[in-house]
């Protein structure tokens, strides 16, 4: 029967489904009490700094509605900035302001906002519109990432990032997420961003998909993905490996961006990373999970990154 | 013990317990598995007719006692202006009708409704039946006093023959009947059978009494439909070491026939009539079929401790509430299956179940139409509200009020137009509707209309499927009558909760990986 053939084929490729992820990976290795470490961006920033990982610079935070009265003064020194909900997920509620024109704030996608618009947006964030479970939230204003020109050709109206899946401290799979016009500058695959599977050994592109369909060039810039090479690859893997040490979460998604001045920055962590990375890599996570399960010896972050380059990439 | 193994054990145990209770209730408490199952009720009416003699009259009749295999549902006397009492005798209850002065033809009815039930048993009330066994200190010398010498000689010879071939009361009675029913009877038997003032029945009774065997008459009626003008079938019982054994005058020892309802046990007269002439007692039977479920609801199962603890014992309004509440697990199961096994995305986890509950009240088509009207007009107004820059809680509150306004408006307009179905719009949970509208509009802004469509239609598909399952008459009935099925559902949900395989939707989603 066709259905069973398909299941067999996906099994052979080591593709894991949501149920497997939820029970065997998240349920088993992600302790709920540690979720705030990744769900709260302020805490993530703090522990990353303590672990020696670079993060985007924090300009300020707004906790109370009354603080909005000072919004204008707060934003005054900055020409570009990003507003985020502290408990947001999946890029919800993020507004990127690239520059100002008179009284208007210009967003990455070209539309403009007035101060009142920003005011409203932050009010929405505070009332929990974008946070998990609708609880009261905090808005943070941070420095806009000026992304590395290396990626100029692979992105449109947004910042591309690298998503690492870190299993028990081993960065076992990676993909680059390239915003498109369709994704509205966001790096979310289901909104139309291109997912580029990255070879864990070299940092080179191996495959690219948009909406689950293979593509070879970026839909807006028309640039070929086959030439994509992520710089500082080994360092990136080490950052991923360190994220495990600082959170203790066994199944983790780490999003890393490249600032032209600072280099790789940890953007955010995710305790429930999606499975689209498998499609981008044309490879399932299962076999690598099982290979890592066999490793009994204690290793530090550097050794784990090396293990991924030397051993895991061939699994 | 791994958690997976524990899950298996727990699920298995829950399912086993649930199914066992269902089986027990179905097999032994006769709770039917389908709502339409009917059971037979037989209404036996005893009709006493007589002619009054312008004198005080008193009519008595033996009344049936509780018995195994047939349950007495109700009994009543229809006797006009006769005084009616029930008197206790050593052999059981008797109905007594009395009147100072009667004339002309009269009829009295006594109606009793019974239901044959294979597993029905009662513990005999010692007060009623105990007297029977002690009351047979008959003076054996006087039994055959009215007979002549020849007859006495014949009966002695018969008794001798039977005695030789028997070992106790049971075999004696069996042999006696056998002798009397032989195709080629002996001379003494012939002589006895031809006696003018003794029939075979009284002959057998007298001989048994003479032998000091405790014996009592049994009068009963076969439960068959459309019997009219019947008399009771007579049998007798003999006391043995193992209790009373039933005999047929023709066939010898018998076990109690399945459909025999015993009206009277004992040697008292079935009925007596004083002060009237031409008394006559006749029986008729009518069979009716009653839905079993109504009999349970009438709480006539009070005898079972188990059912005393069931939902049937609640007041009617609570029963109705629970009929609704017990449907929810079915809806929840549908949600679990569609989300975990199929992978349909819905707006809010259990909102679809709440909507299907509303659909049950409004009927599906009306409900869907009203849902669309409310949600679309709500969305429209929500988009306008978003321009007023309100705080989230205030905005949702505003949407709630708008939804209520839309509902009222719909009701008024449709009522004026004569479409009364729309009045059931009130069954929609307003706060849930408002939240749905809010979520939809956020989703629209954040992820675009496509996602709204995917999740919205996903929610509706789940709601409609849950509606059909919950509307299923059999499901509704089963869950109300056998709430322990909840344990089975719980077991299934626990098992699904450990399913790590692919969702159906993932086979599509990961299809590019399958190709290569």
Main-sheet strand order of chain A equals 11-10-9-8-7-12-13
Report on the biggest sheet of chain A.
Answer: 7 strands, antiparallel
User: What is the terminal-to-terminal distance of chain B?
Assistant: 40 Å
Give the overall average pLDDT of chain B: 82
Protein name (chain B): UUP1 family membrane protein
Domain Inactive transglutaminase fused to 7 transmembrane helices (chain B): 24-194
Domain 7 transmembrane helices usually fused to an inactive transglutaminase (chain B): 270-513
Pfam families (chain B): 7TM_transglut, Transglut_i_TM
Which SSEs are present, and which pair or pack?
The complex is a heterodimer of chains A (about 325) and B (about 525).
Chain A: H1 2-12, H2 18-29, H3 35-39, H4 41-50, E1 58-62, H5 71-75, E2 81-85, E3 95-101, E4 104-107, E5 112-113, H6 115-126, E6 139-142, E7 161-167, E8 170-178, E9 194-198, E10 205-210, E11 213-214, H7 233-247, E12 251-259, E13 263-270, H8 276-281, H9 286-294, H10 301-310
Helix pairs in contact in A: 7-10
Chain B: H1 3-28, E1 38-62, E2 70-78, E3 83-89, E4 92-116, H2 126-134, H3 140-143, H4 149-164, H5 169-180, H6 187-193, H7 200-210, E5 215-222, E6 227-230, E7 233-240, E8 243-248, E9 252-253, E10 260-265, E11 271-274, E12 276-291, H8 292-297, H9 316-325, H10 328-342, H11 351-362, H12 364-386, H13 392-417, H14 430-447, H15 449-471, H16 473-481, H17 485-496, H18 504-509, H19 511-515
Antiparallel strand pairs in B: 1-4, 1-11, 1-12, 2-4, 3-4, 5-7, 5-10, 6-12, 7-8, 8-9
Helix pairs in contact in B: 1-17, 4-5, 4-6, 10-11, 10-15, 10-17, 11-12, 11-15, 12-13, 12-14, 13-14, 14-15
């Amino acid at each position: 029967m066709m259905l069973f053939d398909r299941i067999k084929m996906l099994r052979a490729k080591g593709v894991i489904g949501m149920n497997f992820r939820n029970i065997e990976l998240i349920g088993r290795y992600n302790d709920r009490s540690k979720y705030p470490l990744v769900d709260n961006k302020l805490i993530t920033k703090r522990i990353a700094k303590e672990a020696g990982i670079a993060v985007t610079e924090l300009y300020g935070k707004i906790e109370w509605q009354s603080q909005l009265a000072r919004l204008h003064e707060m934003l005054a020194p900055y020409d570009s900035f990003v507003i985020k909900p502290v408990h947001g997920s999946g890029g919800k509620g993020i507004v990127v302001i690239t520059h100002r024109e008179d009284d208007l704030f210009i967003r990455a996608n070209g539309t403009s906002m007035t101060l009142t618009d920003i005011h409203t947006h932050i009010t929405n964030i505070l009332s929990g519109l974008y946070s998990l479970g609708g609880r009261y939230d905090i808005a943070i204003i941070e420095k806009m990432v000026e992304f590395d020109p290396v990626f100029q050709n692979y992105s449109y109206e947004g910042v591309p990032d690298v998503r690492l899946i870190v299993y028990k401290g081993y960065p076992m799979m990676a993909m680059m997420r390239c915003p498109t016009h369709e994704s509205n500058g966001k790096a979310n695959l289901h909104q139309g961003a291109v997912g580029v599977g990255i070879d864990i050994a070299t940092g080179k592109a191996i495959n690219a998909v948009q909406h689950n369909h293979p593509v070879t060039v970026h839909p807006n810039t028309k640039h070929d993905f086959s030439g994509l090479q992520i710089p500082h690859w080994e360092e990136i893997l080490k950052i991923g490996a360190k994220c495990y040490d600082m959170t203790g979460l066994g199944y983790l998604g780490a999003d890393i961006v490249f600032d032209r001045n600072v280099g790789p920055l940890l953007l955010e962590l995710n305790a429930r990373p999606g499975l689209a990375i498998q499609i981008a890599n044309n490879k399932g996570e299962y076999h690598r999970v099982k290979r890592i399960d066999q490793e009994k010896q204690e290793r530090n972050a550097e050794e784990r990154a090396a293990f991924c380059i030397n051993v895991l990439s061939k699994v | 013990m791994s958690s997976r193994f524990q899950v298996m054990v727990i699920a298995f145990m829950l399912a086993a317990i649930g199914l066992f209770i269902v089986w027990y209730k179905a097999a032994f408490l006769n709770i039917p598995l389908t709502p339409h199952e009917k059971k037979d009720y037989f209404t036996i009416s005893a009709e006493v007719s007589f002619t009054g003699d312008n004198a005080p009259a008193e009519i008595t009749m033996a009344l049936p006692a509780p018995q195994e295999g047939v349950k007495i549902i109700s009994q009543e006397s229809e006797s006009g202006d006769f005084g009616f009492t029930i008197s206790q005798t050593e052999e059981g209850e008797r109905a007594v009708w009395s009147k100072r002065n009667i004339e002309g033809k009269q009829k009295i009815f006594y109606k009793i409704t019974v239901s044959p039930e294979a597993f029905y048993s009662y513990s005999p009330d010692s007060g009623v039946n105990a007297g029977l066994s002690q009351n047979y200190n008959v003076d054996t010398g006087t039994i055959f006093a009215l007979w002549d010498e020849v007859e006495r000689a014949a009966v002695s010879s018969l008794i001798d023959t039977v005695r030789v071939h028997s070992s106790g009361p049971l075999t004696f009675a069996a042999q006696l009947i056998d002798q009397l029913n032989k195709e080629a009877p002996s001379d003494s038997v012939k002589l006895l059978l031809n006696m003018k003032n003794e029939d075979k029945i009284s002959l057998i009774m007298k001989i048994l009494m003479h032998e000091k065997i405790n014996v009592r008459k049994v009068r009963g009626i076969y439960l068959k439909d459309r019997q009219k003008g019947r008399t009771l079938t007579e049998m007798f019982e003999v006391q043995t070491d193992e209790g009373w054994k039933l005999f047929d005058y023709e066939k010898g020892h018998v076990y109690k026939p399945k459909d025999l309802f015993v009206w009277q046990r004992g040697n008292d007269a079935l009925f007596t009539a004083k002060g009237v002439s031409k008394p006559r007692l006749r029986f008729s039977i009518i069979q009716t079929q009653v839905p079993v479920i109504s009999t349970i609801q009438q709480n006539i199962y009070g005898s079972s401790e188990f059912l005393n603890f069931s939902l049937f014992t609640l007041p009617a309004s609570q029963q109705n509430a629970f009929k609704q509440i017990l449907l929810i697990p079915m809806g929840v199961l549908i949600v679990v299956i569609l989300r975990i096994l199929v992978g349909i995305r819905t707006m809010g986890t259990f909102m679809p179940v709440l909507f299907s509950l509303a659909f049950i009240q409004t009927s599906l088509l009306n409900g869907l139409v009203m849902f669309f009207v409310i949600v679309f007009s709500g969305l429209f107004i929500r988009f306008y509200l978003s321009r007023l820059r309100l705080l989230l809680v205030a905005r949702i509150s505003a949407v709630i009020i708008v939804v209520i306004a839309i509902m009222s408006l719909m009701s008024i307009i449709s009522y004026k137009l004569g479409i009364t179905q729309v009045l059931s719009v009130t069954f929609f949970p307003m706060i849930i509707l408002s939240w749905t509208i809010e979520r939809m509009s956020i989703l629209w802004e954040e992820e675009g209309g496509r996602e709204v469509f995917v999740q919205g239609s996903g929610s509706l598909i789940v709601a409609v499927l849950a509606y059909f399952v919950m509307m299923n008459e059999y499901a509704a009935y089963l869950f109300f009558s056998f709430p322990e099925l909840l344990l089975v559902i719980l077991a299934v949900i626990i098992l699904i909760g450990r399913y790590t395989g692919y969702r159906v939707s993932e086979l599509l989603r990961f299809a590019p990986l399958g190709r290569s």
